[in-house]
Amino acid sequence: MTKLRARDLGIPFEGKPGPLNAITDIAGVRVGHATLITGDGKLIVGQGPVRTGVTAILPRDDLTESVFGAWFTLNGCGEMTGTTWLEESGFLNGPVLITNTLSVSVVRDAAIRWGAEHVSPWYSLPVVAETWDGTLNDIRGGHVKPEHVQAALNDASLGPVAEGNVGGGTGMMCHDFKGGIGTSSRHVTEENGAFSVGVLVQANHGDRENLRIAGVLVGQEITDRMPAVHAGETDGPTSSIIAIVATDCPLLPHQLKRLAKRVSLGVGRVGGMGESFSGDIFLAFSTALVSEENERGIQTAQMVSHYRMDPLLTATVQATEEAIVNALVAAETMQGINDNIVYAIPHDRLQNALRKYNRLIGG
User: Fold this and answer.
1) 240, 248, 264, 286: which one is catalytic?
2) Residue 172 domain-assigned?
């Protein structure tokens, strides 16, 4: 059964989405998930319950060809490996993977083995990002294995993207509701180059009272259904969000960093404040081709004019905002370790809150 998305509920957003309203509206971009849900009841470290996974984003069909990329951190209480080389070279080599905080090392090592076959024999600096799922998941149990990383990578496909309690987002929470994976896209008009921007988030951040959807302080309208945490390691309001931005517009690394920075504004529109202990880390890449080097070692790359970038910056803000709300809408209530429960945002009450302020499409 296809899950509802934010627009299905009548939530208004600015900008024109692509056909899928997903990061996969960028030609060649593929997304895959490995979702791990086993066990119930009391936490026994190493046994479960397990509520976690891995999400993989592949920037193009031919991974032997690098893409221009850049990253930005709004607040750095988190991890995204491979960013030192990304910053130095301006190139993203291979896939981007997202998982839980304590599984970064195993995902990184498995990605290196996979990349040696699919990217380059010398592949060694994969990009792996994380957020904390210890409220629902046996996060110290080491449940993410190399085979799950391989499954997420091999599962990566074009087309619609599963959202909510999937992949790396399985055990995540957002603004004290159930969170997880969300995605959205924007199409920039013909007069501005007819390019597209897509965003995928792993949303595990934010405080309830700051949650704002379509300009309405929904978190102050729905004050109950707070997480029921009986025992275990809580996330609190200052956890993290990872965002991956893709575009087909020819941009150089310094321009892509500008897009990555604008994710911060989209996070802020939904009520994320970049809190002191939040890991808010964003990466942007362009799928535009760079020519083969000539006999003198020269390659040719195109870039859009700085004077034409405003629509792309706006598109990034808009797509980030909607991706976060899509993650909230798609997520389902989940019970995890020690019978801790994180509730999904109730769709009917969300609609009523927006209707109260005349912000619901169709009344």
Assistant:
1) 240
2) yes
